[in-house]
Amino acid sequence: MKSPTKSILFKLNTFILFFLTATLSFAQKSATISEKVAMPYQADWSSLQKHTTPDWLYGMKFGIYFHWGPQTVQVASKNPEMTVLEAIDTWKGEKFDAEKWADLMQAAGAQFGGPVAWHGSGVVNWDSDITDWNSVNKGPNVDIYGSLAKELRKRNMPIISSFHTGDFWSRMWGQLSKEDPTYLNPYEDNSKYATANKGRISDAIFKAWFDRISEAIDKYEPDMIWFDTGFGGTVKGELKNYTDNGRLLPDGANELNSVPESYQQKLISDYFNKGLDLGKEVEVFYKTHDIPPGIGLRDIEDGNLLGMQYDPWMADINMQRHFEWRSTWFYNPVNKVKDAGTLIDMLVDMTSKNGRMLLNVPPMADGSFSEETKKELYAMGDWLKINGEAIYNTMPWIFYGEGPTEVTNPGHHGQGKDHGELIPKYTSEDIRFTQNGKNLYAICMEWPGEQITIRTLGSKGKLYPGDIKNISMLGSNEHIKWEQKPEGLVVTFPKEKPCDFAYVLKIERR
């Protein structure tokens, strides 16, 4: 009979090995900047396209970030009449603890993460020298971004910071920018700024937006930044069906609520050049077609993509399931969290398609996490302790998978908002593949019983007879019997399940 102590030590040692491999890889590859760019980046798309995805980022498959702000108080109050300004006055965040937040991220198996730096109100979540509407002067009176960034850096975890600025003109409370002493009082009507530029948003607002985000980058030196919908505005056309994969269709609007290209280019070039100055590789994430291809990585909000993707990408996934009164990106006890099995299935499927998951884990108004949230995150961490080898630092194979199940509603919100029920229900016939070096991983989405036949790995396919040296199941010490036949690779499964969710066959190739 297997010793429980030995089993626990085996799982723990495996997790530590692969988690350290991921973080050390990040540290080593960030130590010296690539010599691919000899000159600083210029503020134009052609220059910015010379940027390449950092080598360390390819191995990063699972991150966590946190929607936390006055909106959390609004949701918790259950009072639809409560304004953001009233919520700021009652947002105390008395249990916020950056160390505990980082502990939870690591317990869940996350490789990278960070705070939502700015979301949907005039309050920024850092110690700002531009505006007094910041989380040090208001609300919890703490530098949320700075304290969490410091804690993550101690643990050698790459930092991602996100910016969600809505309609811009109503989010610039306080002094506009370092060069413009104009003070926008949120208790006054500032709507003139929405149309001050010949019917469009005032340039002063975009300058204020630029200065705030530049300040956050300069203060906290994130390894990744990503911009929500307002940065380029192309998501709206996609969701409203008047654009299609970068084409403006004959019917529908032609308007775009976007940051002007000059500000986009200046911000990204400054950020890339700061990476050069710091001697590290950095990356930008954006929505849909918000910037030209080849400059950063696409992000898909609460959704997935159909089929193998030949460019790396990311999906930001909300841990909460349903929309019930106001936003679920901020904690709402009515909106139940997705269970660990569902989240792991999504992570596996995305990883096999060259993607990665950024999971939103919403804290409660006081800065702590619900027991339900922690339970599912710990379960994810337990799975990754055993099976992280098939996720961390992997790359796609020739085939991403086999089986009957695929995403039916790809794209933004395809598995969120009103479409949460469209998250695929995988079967024992569904398999996803990843690889690292000579090792190929076949991830069985459900337990098939005694035996499985993997058609993709038959001797008539990509793997020739004799290519397979050995097969084992991660987390199991049982000997695995297998035979490669023309019609498929036949594998006899262990008698006992090594974990509670997807099951990984490690196929060592010659």
TrEMBL record:
Pfam families: Alpha_L_fucos, Fucosidase_C
InterPro entries, per the entry: FUC_metazoa-typ, Fucosidase_C, GH, Glyco_hydro_29, Glyco_hydro_29_N, Glyco_hydro_b
Residue intervals of the Glycoside hydrolase family 29 N-terminal domain: 35-389
Signal peptide: 1-27
Gene3D superfamilies referenced in this protein's UniProt entry, alphabetically: Glycosidases, Golgi alpha-mannosidase II
Keywords for this protein: Glycosidase, Hydrolase, Signal
Location of the Alpha-L-fucosidase C-terminal domain: 427-508
Domain of life of the source: Bacteria
Keyword tRNA processing attributed: no
Enzyme Commission no: 3.2.1.51
Function description: Alpha-L-fucosidase is responsible for hydrolyzing the alpha-1,6-linked fucose joined to the reducing-end N-acetylglucosamine of the carbohydrate moieties of glycoproteins.
PANTHER family xref list: ALPHA-L-FUCOSIDASE (PTHR10030), ALPHA-L-FUCOSIDASE-RELATED (PTHR10030:SF37)
Protein name: alpha-L-fucosidase
